């Protein structure tokens, strides 16, 4: 039985260089997220209730993670993002590592105790 359920499937984009780092620093300062030394990157999702949680992303290289959810959708932009099928945004470095030049299709999974593929933490 997998403890990591699919959270969303759809479009993944990436933040501009330096933007996510500033957002992350603000979220740390405001106490909305905690440092995540094991995380390989940062992710934004639509649901602000997910701030500080960890997700795995099925990107162009297969499942990777965990990513720290360090940002979420602004209420004013939520409807447009849902219409576009946006599921996540990743940090600049991840976008570059994935050679992203445009949005990609992908899934994100909520990480609890088991990684995609059955490896238990």
Overview features:
121 residues, alpha/beta, six-stranded mixed β-barrel, Barwin-like endoglucanases, 19% helix
Folded structure, characterized:
31% of the residues are buried. By secondary structure, the protein is an alpha/beta fold. It contains three helices and six strands, in the order E-H-E-E-E-H-E-H-E. It has a six-stranded mixed β-barrel with strand order 1-5-2-4-3-6.
User: What is the correct CATH architecture?
Assistant: Beta Barrel
Q: Tell me the name of the CATH homologous superfamily.
A: RlpA-like domain
Range of strand content: 35-45%
Instruction: State the CATH topology.
Output: Barwin-like endoglucanases
CATH domain class: Mainly Beta
Secondary-structure element sequence? EHEEEHEHE
What's the total count of β strands?
6
Task: Record the strand order, biggest sheet.
Answer: 1-5-2-4-3-6
**Mean pLDDT over the full residue set:** 84
Tell me the span between the first and last alpha carbons.
14 Å
Shape: globular
Most strands sheet: 6 strands, mixed, barrel
Taken together, the total number of domains comes to: 1
Percentage of residues assigned to helices: 10-25%
Radius of gyration: 13 Å
Count of runs of 4 or more consecutive helical residues: 3
Oligomer: single chain
Instruction: Output the structural class.
Output: alpha/beta
Low-pLDDT sequence parts: none
């Amino acid at each position: 039985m997998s403890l990591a359920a699919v959270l969303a499937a759809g479009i993944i984009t990436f933040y501009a260089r330096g933007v996510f780092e500033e957002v992350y620093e603000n979220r740390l300062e405001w106490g909305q997220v905690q440092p995540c030394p094991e995380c390989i990157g940062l992710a934004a999702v639509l649901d602000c209730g997910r701030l500080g949680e960890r997700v795995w992303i099925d990107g162009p290289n297969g499942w990777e993670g965990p990513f720290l959810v360090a940002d979420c959708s602004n209420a004013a932009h939520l409807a447009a993002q849902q219409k576009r099928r946006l599921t996540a945004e990743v940090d600049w470095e991840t976008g570059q590592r994935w050679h992203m030049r445009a949005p990609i299709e992908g899934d994100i999974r909520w990480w609890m105790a088991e990684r995609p593929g059955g490896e238990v933490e």
